[in-house]
Amino acid sequence: MAKNTVTKEICTYLLGICVPSSKQNAAKIRVRRLELDKHLLMYFNKFEFVYAHDPEKLCKTGDTVLIQNLPKKLTRIITHKVIEVIYPLGDITDPITGKKVVAGQYRDDIEDNAKLFGELKSKYKYDELSKRGSMENKKDFTSKKTYMKYSDDPKDFDPYAINP
């Protein structure tokens, strides 16, 4: 008798940080894993770099993203796909309460303290300013195209180059 074998594909979700990449339609994601040192019986960080398919350009450099493995590789190096951006760079959200956080305090608490003790003119107004992207090409250069730089010349400084 012939046996019917069913293969089950395992979907693995990983959380990582987007780093600069020179690939088109793909994002380079740094995934942190913990590795056990058997002599010390302690876990230490080990970083892996994975390329994820991102044709919509969802993530920018520094964003924390959720990725999923693909059932079949798209190319030799693209093995995952970007599901969603969990936390954009610079916009910290408490995962339990869902409130925005600034330097260990909730933004609501900072505003309440400002009302109690009087607002300063130098207070940063989060509600009036737009989200990330308003300073693009002024102070935020994550949208610039990066490339691999194979020479390490201190006279030739380029912030968009990546050392391999």
From TrEMBL:
What biological-process terms (Gene Ontology) are attached? mitochondrial translation
User: Where does the UniProt annotation place the signal sequence?
Assistant: none
Q: Which GO terms describe its molecular function?
A: structural constituent of ribosome
Keyword Disulfide bond listed: no
Which Gene3D superfamilies does the record match to this protein? Nucleic acid-binding proteins
One GO CC term on file = mitochondrial small ribosomal subunit
The protein's matches in Pfam families, at most eight in alphabetical order, are given as: Ribosomal_S17
Matching SUPFAM superfamilies: Nucleic acid-binding proteins
**Which InterPro entries does the annotation name?**
NA-bd_OB-fold (IPR012340), Ribosomal_uS17 (IPR000266), Ribosomal_uS17m_metazoa (IPR039193)
Q: Does the keyword Ribosomal protein apply?
A: yes
Q: Which UniProt keywords apply?
A: Ribonucleoprotein, Ribosomal protein
Family statement: Belongs to the universal ribosomal protein uS17 family.
Protein name, UniProt field: 28S ribosomal protein S17, mitochondrial
What gene is behind this protein? 551158
